[in-house]
Fold this sequence. Notes:
- It contains 4 helices and 7 strands.
- By secondary structure, it is α+β, with helices and mostly antiparallel strands.
- Strands 1-7-6-5-4-3-2 form a 7-stranded antiparallel beta sheet, with helices on one face.
- Strand 5 (92-98) and strand 6 (107-116) form a beta hairpin.
- The longest helix is centred in the last third of the chain and has 22 residues, at 143-164.
- The model has no long low-confidence stretch (mean pLDDT 92).
Amino acid sequence: MAATGWDASPQSATADREIVISRVIDAPRELVFEAFTEVRHLSRWWGPDGFTTTTRAFEFRVGGDWDFVMHGPDGTDYEEWIAWTEITPPERIALLHGESRGDPNAFESLLTFAPDGAATRIEMRTVFPTREMRDEVVEKYHAIEGGQQTLSNLAAYVTDILLNGVEN
């Protein structure tokens, strides 16, 4: 982990700038990882409740980008950009997330996918450039609730694949 700068200690030096959200999803790790790494899946579940996603470009590789728009339930569009900085299938993904390439307010996220019996424990650990930025997204944009809803949408999506055997 030192190669990417991520500190796994419970009380890391970035704790005051972090948001950590986790969930156990009743699906195999490979399927959960695939749902995070293929655009045909991401466009079906990504985002908080009521949001939809339109992808403009997607290249899943280290250094590749995902350029997309999230459409809020109130009609507001949010320009989004992700660059993948580390990919270790099916264990972890590190990324940089902002509004566009070069966004000075972009934040880093580390996603880990760990087996939990027959299920998968996913953890999304996000580190913001400053504590003030973290506090703003928590208070103004309800980032913790939105992250929990996003993982809930992922859980429902992969459960539907498992129950129906196909993507709807």
